[in-house]
Structure formats: C-alpha cells, structure tokens
Amino acid sequence: MDKKQATKRAIELRRKLQYHNYRYHVLQSPVVSDVEFDRLLAELRQIETEHPDLVTDDSPTQRVGGEPVDKFERVRHPASILSLSNAFDPDDIRSWFDRIAKIDERVEHAGFVVEPKLDGLTVVLHYEKGVFVLGATRGDGQYGEAITSNLRTVRSLPLRIPVESGGPPAPSRLVVRGEALIFRDDFKVMNQALEAAGERTFVNPRNTASGALRQLDPSLTASRPISLLCYAVVDGEGELPGTQWETLAWLRELGFPVASEPSRVPDLEAAIEAAQELETRRENLAYELDGAVIKIDDLQLSSELGVVGKDPRGAIAYKFAAQEVSTQLQDIGVNVGRTGVITPYAILEPVEVGGVTVRQATLHNFDFIKDKDIRIGDRVMIKRAGDVIPYVIGPIEDARQGDEKPFRMPRRCPSCGEALEQVEGEVAVYCVNSACPAQLVRNVEHFASRGAMDIEGLGIKVAQQLVEEGKIGDVGDLYSLTEDRLLDLEGFAEKKAQALVAAVDASRSQPLQRLIGALGIRGIGDVVAGDLALAFGDLDALSRANADNLTQVEGVGPNLAQAVLDWFDQNKNKALLEKLKQARVWPRVDRSPALQGPLALDGLTFVVTGTLPHLTRDEAKELIKIQGGKVAGSVSRNTNYLVLGENPGSKLDRAQQLGIPTLDEDGLRRLIETLGRGGED
DNA sequence: GATCCTCGAGTTCG
DNA sequence: CTCGAGGATC
Q1: Tell me, in Å, how far CA of A515 is from C1' of C5?
Q2: Is strand C within 7 Å of residue A558 (CB)?
Q3: Rounded distance between C-alpha atoms, residue A83 and residue A80, angstroms
Q4: CB within 8 A of A615, min separation 6: which ones?
Q5: Strand C proximal to A633 Cβ, under 7 A
Q6: What average pLDDT does the segment A100-109 reach?
Q7: Half-sphere exposure of A391 (CA within 13 A, CB side)
C-alpha cells in the first residue's frame, strides 16, 4: 500500500471506528459485531505502525494509553468550574427560589431543567476544530490537572466531533463539562473479574473512577470501565444554545454521551416533584447519583443572577439521603446460627443510612473479613440500597491511624465454649456441640417460625427464656409445657401463658412437610421438606429410609441424604421423635391429591418481585402453588412469567434480558381464570 | 468436567 | 436480597 492509499484508508477507518464506538458506548446499539470492530481497529493499528507519521491525536488507537507521565500539568480553566449550593428538603429549594426571585423578577416565570446529580469525577474537555485536545479535572474550580491521555481511554468520550456526519457543525473551539463515572453493571462485572483473579475488589464506583483517572500510567486507566456523561458547555466560539435543555440536546447531537433522565418542567413545584421522582427511581438507574440538580433553563438569566462564593445562584443541588456512608467499626461480634454456623457481625458507631440508624451489619463470614482486610477500629463504608439490609462494603484504608487491630478468629463457641470446626474447603465455621444452648435457642425459634410450625408468641426472646430457665431441653418438650410452668417466667401472666399453650397445641395439625422443615436438618428447607414428605408419607418411614431411598427424591443427592441419615442417627433426635409421637405431633401426608383434575398453572414456573396491590408476596406465592404452579426464587430461562409489583428489584432486569413476559396481579388472576376454564374442557 | 439452576441460611430496623 | 453449595444437565 503506498503512502497515499494508506492515508486515505486510515482516515476512513478512523471515521468508521469513531462511528461504531459511538453506536456502542453512547447509543448502546451497535451495528457491527465486536469481532468486526476489532478487525477494523487492528487494520488501523497496522497502518499506523507502518506509517508512524499518520498517527493522530484523535485516532482510536490512542485510547489504549500512551506513556506514563511523572506528574500532571496544571491547567487554567477557561471559566470557573462552579460547584453548587445544597438543599436537603423541598423547603430549602423553595427558599432558594424566593431569594433569587427577589433579585430578578423574571425568575417568577422561569422554567427549570432537573438532572441527576452524578456521583463521579467532574471533567473539563477541550475541543479544537472538533478534535479532543485536552481534558482536565475540576481541581479547585480555577485550575485543574491535565489528564488528557487518561481521558482518551474512556470509550464513550468522542475524540472528534461531530461523531456522525450530518450532525451540527462543531465550533472551532468548544469546552464541555461532564462527569466521568462507572456504571453499576460495569462496576459489578469488573469486581467479579477481579475476585475471580484473586485480586482485591473496589469499594465503590466513584472512588474507583476518580482513582483510575489520576493514575500516572494511562494503561491502568484503560483497564477500568469508565464512562462519561456530559451536561454543560463551559466555553465555546460561535453560537451556543440559549437554554440548558437545548444544550443537552445539542451535546447529544454532536455525539457526546448525555444522560437520558433530565426533564424540563414549567415551574418550581414541578421541579421539586421531578427531583423527588428521581429519588424514588434512584436504585433503578444505570449509575449512582447522590441527588438531583435543579437549573434555571434560561442560561442568560442564570448567568445574570451571578455567583455567591463558588456557587451560582441559577442552580441548586437537592441532596438525597445518603445511602452510603462511613462510620467506625467498634467491634466484631459473633453469632451462632441454628445449624451451628458461626457468623461475624459488625458493631458500628450508630449512623444514619438511607433514613434509618444502623448499629449492626452482618459480615457474612470470616473469609469476608480477611479478603477485605477489615480491622477493628477501621472506618468502614456502609451501604443500604432500597429497603435492603445494610452491609459493610469495606474499610477506608486511607483513614487508618495505625491503632486498628486485625480481627482474631474465635477458636471456641461464644455460647458453649466448645472448640469450633471448619470443614476443609468450606467457608463456614461450625460449633459442632449438639448440646450448645445458643443452637437450641435458634432451633426452637426456627421450629416455631411462620414458615415452619407457626407457633404464635414464640419468638427468639421467649425461646431464650425457655432454654435458659431449663423449661425445655428440645423442641419436643414444648408440647408438655403447662400454664403453671410458664407463669414463673418473667413477663408471663395468665393470659400470655394460656395463649402460648394454645398456640403450641394448635401446631399439632401442621402438615408433615412443615414438621420436616421445622426439625432443622442441615440443608433441608421448605422445598426439599415438601418432596420428602410426599415421598415417605410420615416420620417413621423417613427415619427408616436409607441413602438409596433418599437420593431417589428429586433434589436430594449424596450430601443431603447423608445429612438426613446423620440427623436420624443421633440419639437426642431419636428421643425427640419419641416425644413428638407421644405428644401426637405426627402428621401423615394426605395422599389423595386434588381431585379437580389438571390445575390451571400446572407446569408453569413463576417468580414474584416487588409489592403487589392487594396480595403480599407470600400470598401471591401461595395462590400460584394452589393453582399448581411453581414459584422460583430467581429468574432463569426456565421461568415462564415474572409477576411484577411496584418497586421491582434486579429480577426485572434479568427478566428483560431473557425476554421473559411479566404479569401484574390482575394479569395473574386473568391467567388463572383463562387456563382454569381451558383445563376443564 | 463445566455450567446452569435451585435451594437454604442468615440478616436490619421500626 | 445475596451468597455459597449441592444437584441436575449437557
């Protein structure tokens, strides 16, 4: 290929790559496969290697990262990169409005744009004649650091504008403000990959993005999935849009990535509403945000309003309640589960997260503490998403004082003092003392719980009292409790004692499936208990079963079979069975399955997510099961329908990925009706 | 032998 | 809800 041809081909390749990159990273609708893209890129790289003088600043091959630099150069921003004043509730927003309405009466009739307040690193991007030439951090607002080579590695950053031919002509000079961040999904995938490689994972997207962009070696930056969203013009030549709303549209047309969430509203109350609406959707957005920004749409008016300190008067940030905060880890406690599993939990300096005060959070297991290098006394990040349980993300290592103590794994059970055991290759640590009082308490609690024997009035506290006062030695003893014997417990008077005895009595009629589940055999929960009940009919038959009989049951393999055999082999459990039999707690499975023929939902699998209008989730599951359907815990290809309520979780995303149809509560009822009628014909 | 799927267990605050 | 582990399936 001669020089002239090479030059022509290089330009063509760059144009193509630019376009496909934009389709992929900005529009997220690629028109060529990854393989084709890679082939084009390889061809360009080949040409550039043969003709090094053809390499340009805006060439996609330059994204991989150039030479490391010693330090970043300081650059002066063409205009101050302002911060925003904060509002924490709607009234703060209204008083901001009143203040600026006094300064300029046009504010009274101003429209607003409401945008997500992105939680990333603010960047300032310079374009000369449409080519990306300089990128800087915000710094102190006047001066920032030039991180151009690092920003070049960001795939959604246009190296040349307009990206698509036919877009508006780019001004000869343009400076754009945006936010570099990492999308939630990308962050998750990245952490999973790091974990698989045995490397330390990152605590949150924001710190990761900001840390990666300050790397002196651009190839490190390139290895992080950083994205960009732009939202303002800092400076530019020629005619620029007059409103914020038009600015967003214009940036989008030039090929910049722009968030799709902003909305334009006619007045302040609508703006407040839009900001609050953004807060409710916060968990479902692709990126993390810590608030909403309300901006006066008219940029001329906005700039005339001026600045207070570093904050422009024409916009305000409405901060959401923090869902991720740091606090001090005061100590690490240890719990004993009903199966004897020992789990550590964090004792925290109380802190507000997403509207509730958190004092404790689980640490999952001892490997978690080791992997994250969590030490007592550390400042740790706590996260609470939606109404999900708070958890410790990890320590802030930079905040260490040096007096933090590594956690020493306990060698003895905190309840009974017996030595703990860990099975080779397993994460869990067990207390194997079958007489451990803590285990008995949890065992009684489980036995009485709603999904098991459903004994009302017997929660963990009463269970603890009964065990500590020696009223019971196993769950079988519950059935010989009398009112008299309960009366000497603290907090028990005649009425409460009576109620408990009655509740225990009522539990005799629970079906076999529940009783098997209630026994607390390791690895046997609701579902397998149901299968065992159906297969064996009563506890006598189950206790006589051997490994072969057991593995015949669907879902039971050698491990579960052994767990069942072990349980029935223990003397204390033999004694327990005897007590239950004497107490006539001995249900048999009703082997006359429904006579009404095929059920409406026979053979269909459902997953329920979110809050339904009339039924609780458990009721909905019950309804599906009664009609012959199966309810699974998570969405997979085998799922037929996702029953969808308000505020669905991640299950909806997965269902959409797999193209699984959704139903609302009414839809479910209609389905049962139509199929029910069809089945009877 | 690898991958996908399902189940079980533990878990916070008000 | 999330994780780990066991079981089923190819």
Answers
A1: 24
A2: yes
A3: 9
A4: A623, A665
A5: yes
A6: 90
A7: 15
Q: Which of residues 410-429 of A touch strand C (CB under 7 A)?
A: 426-428
Residue A450 burial (C-beta neighbours within 10 Å; 0-12, 13-18, 19+): exposed
Q: Straight-line distance from CA A150 to C1' B8, in Å?
A: 46
Q: Is the CB of A526 under 7 A from strand B?
A: yes
Element housing A292 (H / E): strand A289-296
Q: Single out the residue of A417, A432, A428, A354 nearest to residue A390, CA to CA.
A: A354
- A342: which strand partners? A336, A429
Task: Give the end-to-end CA distance of chain A in Å, rounded to a whole number.
Answer: 75
A117, A372, A383, A621: the active-site residue: A117
- Span CA (A554) to C1' (C8), Å: 9
What HEC string does A55-90 produce?
CCCCCHHHHHCCCCCCCCCEEECCCCCCCCCEECCH
Q: Given the structure tokens 């959401």, which residue do they identify?
A: A320
The amino acid sitting at A547 is A
Contact positions of strand B to protein Cβ (< 7 A): 4-14
Say yes or no: Cβ of A339 under 7 A from any atom of strand B.
Answer: yes
Degrees, nearest 5: CA angle A607-A613-A615: 60
In whole angstroms, give the CA distance from residue A603 to residue A626. 13
- As beta bridge partners, residue A13 has none
Per the CB < 8 A criterion, the answer to whether A221 and A213 are in contact is yes
Task: Find out whether A438 and A468 touch, Cβ atoms under 8 Å.
Answer: no
Kindly give, in sequence order, each residue whose CB lies less than 8 Å from that of residue A315, ignoring residues fewer than 6 positions away.
A84, A293, A294, A295, A296, A302
Among A448, A440, A576, A592, residue whose Cα is nearest residue A510: A448
Domains along chain A with CATH numbers: 3-64 (1.10.287.610), 86-319 (3.30.470.30), 324-422 (2.40.50.140), 437-509 (1.10.150.20), 512-582 (1.10.150.20), 596-676 (3.40.50.10190)
Query: Is A645's CB less than 7 Å from nucleic acid strand C?
Result: no
User: What is the C-alpha to C-alpha distance for residues A343 and A335, in angstroms, rounded to an integer?
Assistant: 5
Give the pLDDT confidence of A570-628 residue by residue, as tens digits. Answer: 898 999 999 999 999 999 876 555 445 566 777 788 888 877 777 777 778 778 877 77
Which residue type occupies A128?
E
CB of A337 within 7 Å of some strand C atom: no
- As a rounded value in angstroms, the CA-to-C1' distance for A337 and B9 is 9
Residue A236 three-state SS: strand
Our measurement of CA A85 to C1' C6, in angstroms, reads 54
What is the model's pTM? 0.65
The spacing between the Cα labelled CA in A427 and the C1' in C5, in angstroms, equals 10
Most confident of A226-230, A589-593, A649-653: A226-230
CB < 8 Å & 24+ apart, contacts of A654-662: A655/A607, A660/A635
Q: Is the peptide bond before A158 cis (omega within 30 degrees of 0)?
A: no
pLDDT at A320 (0 to 100): 82
Does residue A341 lie within 7 Å of nucleic acid chain B, judged by its CB?
yes
Closest listed residue to residue A302, CA positions, set A317, A313, A286: A313
Per DSSP, the residues of A590-651 read: -----SS-S-TTTT-EEEEESB-SSS-HHHHHHHHHHTT-EE-SS--TT--EEEE-BS--HH
Question: Would you call A117 a catalytic residue per the annotation?
Answer: yes
Strand B–CB A503 distance below 7 A: no
DSSP, residue by residue, A442-455: HHHHHHHSTTTT--
Per-residue confidence at A679, pLDDT binned at 50, 70, 90?
very low
